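Project outcomes to date are best conveyed with an example. Our students and postdoctoral researchers have been running inverse folding experiments weekly, and each run begins with a structure described purely in tokens. The record below, which covers 379 residues, was selected by the lab manager from last quarter's runs and is presented without edits.
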């Protein structure tokens, strides 16, 4: 239970941390943030900013000792330091063993397979450049770096072309069989210290075809009640299996036979929950605060149908960001702008997002597609 001068430490100072801080303000929570970038989105709005690497063991231990509870907004942190803090009695949520599992996509896939969760067939390759020719029977597939991939980076689509087979990663990777995918879905589940759980209705995520990051999402997903229930049940069962404290996004493939496969899991705030700030009763960021602070969980009820659009840097532009078409977009009703405080745009860099709400999902989608054509991030 949080108290006067209650401090939450956040490893990672990006946009997820920034939005978490905005919810912390409503709860009078003091926020400490650590990030190696002195101009990280959180750097100017948290109570105390530590410009250190979240992979530095000593820095993370020092940082963690100053807060009541430590959480993450990025998985690529020093897990040894988190175990040390946990041993010293500091509350670390999600727990270090969960973060350690998620950091390695190979271990994550093995865990899902061993526990009987539905996942696409996969193989673990130590050096894909040397081994892929011996695995042509497994193509077409997606090749994913076991460690370090993020926001579409570290993912390659492998068909059966000779160029696909030669121009690949040399680091340990997961070769995952391509699913005949009808839709991609995501469910966010929360679990607090007492074991109470809450699950958000499934959303449909539409990915950029080349860069493998979310282009936009639709809430609620247009799926059957049976599929929605299956996805929610799997997410909640997985949270219990991991003994999660916090929130976790579970990404799914839905194939053409209406079968679900888990793609990946992320035990932190997630791009697939951004619409919850305006369109659900309790946002994913407020839910995380409640979960790791021992408070009752909030309602995940959908208030309005919605579409969330990622604002991505336009290809061919690198430099100081200019938001072309912003005035025109902001004249529309039911449009909520979130900019991430990033001064420099790069091709396909996440610069912000817009959530569109409406009483009709069809109208929300129409409005969102119009906004995608109007708003451009250039220099």
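After processing, the design step wrote out the following sequence:
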């Amino acid at each position: 239970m949080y108290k006067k001068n209650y401090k939450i430490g956040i490893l990672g100072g990006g946009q997820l941390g920034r939005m978490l801080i905005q919810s912390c303000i409503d709860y009078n929570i003091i926020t400490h943030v650590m990030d190696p970038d002195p101009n990280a989105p959180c750097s100017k709005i948290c109570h105390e900013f530590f410009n250190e690497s979240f992979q530095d063991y000593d820095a993370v231990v020092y940082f963690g000792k100053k807060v009541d509870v430590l959480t993450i907004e990025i998985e690529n942190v020093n897990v040894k330091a988190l175990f040390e803090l946990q041993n010293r009695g500091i509350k670390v949520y999600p727990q270090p063993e969960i973060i350690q599992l998620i950091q390695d996509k190979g271990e994550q896939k093995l865990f899902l397979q061993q526990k009987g969760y539905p996942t696409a067939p996969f193989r673990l390759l130590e050096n894909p450049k040397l081994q892929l020719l011996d695995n042509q029977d497994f193509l077409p597939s997606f090749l994913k770096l076991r460690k370090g991939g993020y926001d579409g980076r570290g993912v390659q689509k492998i068909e059966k072309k000779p160029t696909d087979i030669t121009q690949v990663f040399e680091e340990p990777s997961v070769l995952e069989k391509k699913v005949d995918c009808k839709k991609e879905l995501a469910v966010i589940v929360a679990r607090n210290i007492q074991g109470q759980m809450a699950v958000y209705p499934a959303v449909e995520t539409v990915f950029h075809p080349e860069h493998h990051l979310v282009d936009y999402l639709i809430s609620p997903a247009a799926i059957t009640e049976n599929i929605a229930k299956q996805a929610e049940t799997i997410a909640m069962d997985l949270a219990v299996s991991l003994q999660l404290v916090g929130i976790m996004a579970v990404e799914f493939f839905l194939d053409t036979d209406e079968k679900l496969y888990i793609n990946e899991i992320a035990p932190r705030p997630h791009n697939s929950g951004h619409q919850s700030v305006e369109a659900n009763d309790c946002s994913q960021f407020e839910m995380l605060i409640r979960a790791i602070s021992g408070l009752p969980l909030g309602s995940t009820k959908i208030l309005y149908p919605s579409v969330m659009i990622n604002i991505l840097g336009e290809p061919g532009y690198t430099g100081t960001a200019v938001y072309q078409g912003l005035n025109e977009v902001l004249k529309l009703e039911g449009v909520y702008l979130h900019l991430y405080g990033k001064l420099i745009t790069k091709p396909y860099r996440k610069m912000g997002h817009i959530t569109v709400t409406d009483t009709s999902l069809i109208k929300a989608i129409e409005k969102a597609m119009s906004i995608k054509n109007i708003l451009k991030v250039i220099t």
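The first helix runs from residue 15 to 26. The radius of gyration is 20 Å. The training component of this project remains on track.
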